[in-house]
Design goal:
about 150 residues, alpha+beta, Immunoglobulin-like, 2 domains, four-stranded antiparallel β-sheet, three-stranded antiparallel β-sheet, 9 strands, elongated
Length: about 150
């Protein structure tokens, strides 16, 4: 993996610290080879998204989903089997602990999560506040009708 030096960008920009920290963090994650568990990110509508993660063997009580400061964190911790009644000849289903983080854009909210057939689905939606949405502004001039321009 290539090493990217973001120092020149730090010197010539103001207020983009969060973006650069996110880029640095994602590059470090790529270097670490964090490929478990596999996941998909899909667009399900104009402002709707779904993260689907393959978590075979994990129950809903063994997965923790949290959102803090626009970072969606998904952790899985398999409970240990204490009885020792199973003897594996081959163990190909990974049951190791994991932690996967996703940086969410502004106004993206978690709408819900479900676990079915070994797939964890997390539904997200971008809900822009009314104050941030485009609006129409009326233009008036003396002696003429008002004109409306769409924003």
């Amino acid at each position: 993996m290539r090493h990217f030096d973001l120092t020149p960008l730090y010197r010539s920009t103001v207020g983009f610290d969060r973006l650069f920290n996110m880029i640095d963090g994602n590059l470090a994650t790529l270097d670490a080879g964090a490929a478990y568990p596999p996941y998909n990110i899909e667009r399900t509508g104009d402002n709707a998204y779904r993260v689907t993660m393959a978590v075979a063997g994990f129950g809903d009580g063994e997965i923790d989903i949290s959102l803090k400061e626009q970072t969606l964190t998904i952790k899985g911790q398999k409970t240990e089997e204490k009885d020792g009644s199973r003897e594996y000849l081959h163990r190909g289903i990974a049951s190791r602990a994991f932690e996967r983080k996703f940086q969410l854009a502004d106004y993206v909210e978690v709408k819900g999560a479900s676990l079915e057939n070994g797939l964890l689905h997390i539904d997200l939606a971008r809900e822009i506040p009314e104050a941030m949405k485009p609006r129409q502004i009326a233009i008036s001039s003396k002696g003429s009708d008002q004109k409306v321009i769409e924003g």
